[in-house]
Predict the structure of Aminotransferase class V-fold PLP-dependent enzyme.
Amino acid sequence: MTALDLDFVRSQFPAFQSPVLSTHAFFENAGGSFPCRAVVERLHRFYTDRKVQPYAPYPGAQAGGAEMDEARLRLAGMMGVAREEVSFGPSTSANTYVLAQAVRKWLAGKGLAIVVTDQDHEANSGVWRRLADEGIEVREWKLDPETGSLDPADLRALLADGKVRLVCFPHCSNVVAELNDVTAICALAREAGARTVVDGVSYAPHGFPDIPALGCDVYLFSAYKTYGPHQGIMVIREAFGMELPGQAHFFNNDTLYKRFTPAGPDHAQIAACAGMADYVDALAARHGIGGDAAARNRGVHDLMRAQEVAVIAPLLDYLAARNDVRLIGPRDAARRAPTVAVDLGRAAEPVSEELGRMGIACWAGDFYAVRPLTAMGVDLEKGVLRMSAVHYTGAEDVARLIAALDRVL
């Protein structure tokens, strides 16, 4: 495989030329990535030349509507789905909440069940658990308290009686970071007659998903973590989306991408999301990756992952070799996202503050992953130190981080 051209990659991000942001090695990507230049330029152009009600019969409105349509069409092409299956919302938490209200009406009073995990960020856990208020049985797929892993055999047992209609789980946790086998899990659920909702927020920054290959019914992620603006993106397959009760204005329910958008969308940010597709295409062109949009996306995904696996391995080896910290999740970089959480056995916030003074941008806390950290025996008052990389992270950044950690720890 061609190696990722890191100089070219960084030239696509204004942050690396910023006198404010470029002073630190950036390891807070799981909280939000840098936006790529194409997104910044599209957002600026929209607010400068198109910030009117879109689709109206005059030039600025027509241009704005066309750019919104372009974003949906191109992202759909990248992920291998129909344009109508891509919905935008203010955040993934909001999109998940709206989806849960639809499921509430879909399942209430039928004596059926759903499955949630304790490995998830709270956004893909709490809203589903509250469906128990309607008499919907909520079954928990529990992680292994030592490793943080989810065992598919445990899910099979939860599905055995045929009552489960929905399985909600993460592509990977924002603290455990182990890559769950989404394709196998979705196949297992489908065999049992259940739909699947995948929280992809912590995975999508490492490569946009190939939805047909995954086989899920819903995939959710956040554009502000995939080099874009602050929008939530939800892919919902048509068969499931039209089966669920609509949550928008009744006269919009015939349009799938409006069906779960009860509030007016942010026109400028939707239009700017086309910049993420611009960036993927720029990487594909630079590295000689051809084919249709889905093929280009798959090739860029693999480039990103190869870079991340190579770059983060020394940090994992360094932390695993220490006997005074607990590395959360797998040591093997190929089995995880490059989001590295560490239980220090003491308050993590002061350590992140000291690292900040040494030119390392990262943070500490529970990261809304209260359930997985509690299940793994982490003291929430102390929290974890989390250091998260993406494909634009260089080997020199990781070396700088390790040197700083060695001094602080």
